[in-house]
Amino acid sequence: MKRRIVSLLLILFMAGGIFGQDAAPTATPRRRGWLGRILHPFSPEVVPQYKDPKLRGLALDLQITPQTIKLSEVRQLGIKVTLANLSKRPVALDFPTNQRIEIYLTNSAGDILAKWSDNHAIADKPATILVNPQERIEYSETISTRELAPNKVFIAEVFFPQYPELRIRQKFLAVP
To answer: I need a labelling partner for 89 at 20 to 30 A (CA). Which of 45, 52, 118, 157 fits?
Structure first.
C-alpha cells in the first residue's frame, strides 16, 4: 500500500513540471525539463533568450588567460570570445564597421579602466556575418593590463556594439 502511495505522489510531482509554463521569455537561460535531461544527460548548453528575435539561439562564452594575472609577468590579457549558434536556423549579423566586438576592463566599482577599441583603427566597412546552426565564431584579442592594480578584482566585459544584448562579463584577480 505504501509503495502505491509513494509512486502516485512521485508521478504527480513529475507531472506538475510537465504542465508548468513560463508566462514570458526572459533574458536568463532557461532550465531544461526532466525529459530533456534524461534523453540528453551530457549536453549542458542552455540557449539564452533575448528580446531581439533575430538573436535567439546565440550563446556567448568568455575565456580569460591567465585567470589570475601576475602583473609583474603579464602585460597583455588574452580574451577569447566564442559566439555559438545553438538554434536550428542561421542567424545573420550586420555590422556597419569592421569592429565586431568591444572589450572593457573595469574595476569592481564599474569604472572603465581600458577599452580595446582605443588601440585599434576602426574603418567604415560594412559586413554581414552568417552564423549557421551549430557553428561557432571565435574572437581572440588582447588588451593591456597597465591600468590594473595588484590584489584587486577586475571585470572583463565583452559585447557586440551593434547588438547590446550580446554581452558577457567575467571577474578575474590581479596579483603583484
So the answer is: 157
